């Protein structure tokens, strides 16, 4: 009897010990997960949280470095001395990128920088070499020829684009290179070099005078640059673009030059035509085709003249760099998808093809035109012959293999252009206006 009781107590003790040990392990595991969760939240959210105080602190630091002669730019005097740049609000911080809304002499702008601090950018090696060689320090100046050479290398490396006669450096930084007697100060060189390390700045600045379908850079101070403020599209709303905001006051018609107030529905075919014009620009008007690998409403905006503008070009690549990105190892076609830019897998070589399979237009038709030009939004007009034909053309455009059937894609694009022009003619009752617009913008190449 006693032995049985002792055995039972011993067994009970073992079970209690095991349960206690299990509880200790579970408690330790829960604590570890909780602490790691806090660290993750702090590193990925709180440390990069968009706050007004932090934004103002960043701009104050920029101005302090401007006063010290470390950095400069055509925006610095108004930002740091004259008070003509007024901070409005923080838009977002993401992976170190800082974006803020402000006004410059009453004009809304967006201030951007890929990194928060000026010192975080790689220094220009030429300046460091001069310092190590015993240069004269803060007053050392370099010739425009040196700047052209190093900036050209940076452009080629950043964009995968050979600079030519139509891509000149003065578009990157004022007009000084046109004045042979002028030289750059160290602050100017350091600021230019920090800007050139930001792919979006370089991309927008290179294309600034070549197309009106990219956001305009208005100025810079150190590593921060200002672009025009435009309201982006939004995928969560079926209307995609807030065209109603453009109807609040009359503006010159982009087609006739006359004052005219249009409804949001009237604007849709005109904005769609601007998308097609942008596609033609990007495919044919540069030394290499330009590929958009992240096509979504948030990356585009509409100016008041109804021009479509690419406002986020972090995932835009010219043909040489696009080929380098696509040509990777693979075992299936799924391995060859780089966001909206895809190619085919050559299974005999286990290598993705360097040529893109789809096209900018095909993805725009799929992700923007198809939900936008839909029976739901068209309402009572959805069943009209022109609208039905347009919906069918959009559907065909979205399903075409853009890279493999280029001839068919050109035919569909021409069909889309013709239908959109007819819709404009139908809305305005002005046949000449539509024909003039068609001849001016959409002659097939």
**N/C terminus separation:** 103 Å
Helix content: 40-55%
Shape: globular
Structural class: alpha+beta
Which runs of at least 5 residues are low in confidence (pLDDT < 50)? Answer: 38-47, 248-259, 431-445
Mean pLDDT: 80
What CATH calls the topology of the largest domain is Transferase(Phosphotransferase), domain 1
* C-alpha-based Rg, rounded: 29 Å
Order of adjacent strands in the largest pleated sheet:
1-2-3-5-4
CATH domain class name of the largest domain = Mainly Alpha
Number of domains: 2
Task: Summarize this structure as a short list of keywords or feature phrases.
alpha+beta; two-stranded antiparallel sheet; disordered C terminus; disulfide bond; 2 domains; globular; 445 residues; five-stranded antiparallel sheet; single chain
Describe the structure.
- It is a single chain.
- The chain is α+β, with helices and mostly antiparallel strands and 445 residues long.
- It folds into 2 domains: 50-229, no CATH class; 243-441, Orthogonal Bundle (Transferase(Phosphotransferase), domain 1), CATH 1.10.510.
- The protein has helices at residues 2-44, 52-67, 76-82, 125-132, 144-159, 186-196, 199-206, 264-284, 319-326, 360-372, 375-378, 385-399, 406-428, 431-441; strands at residues 85-94, 97-104, 107-113, 217-221, 224-228, 251-252, 259-260, 290-292, 300-302, 308-310, 316-318, 337-338, 341-342, 345-346, 351-352.
- A hairpin with a 5-residue loop joins strand 9 and strand 10.
- The longest helix has 43 residues, at 2-44.
- It starts with a helix and ends with a helix.
- The chain crosses the membrane at residues 21-41.
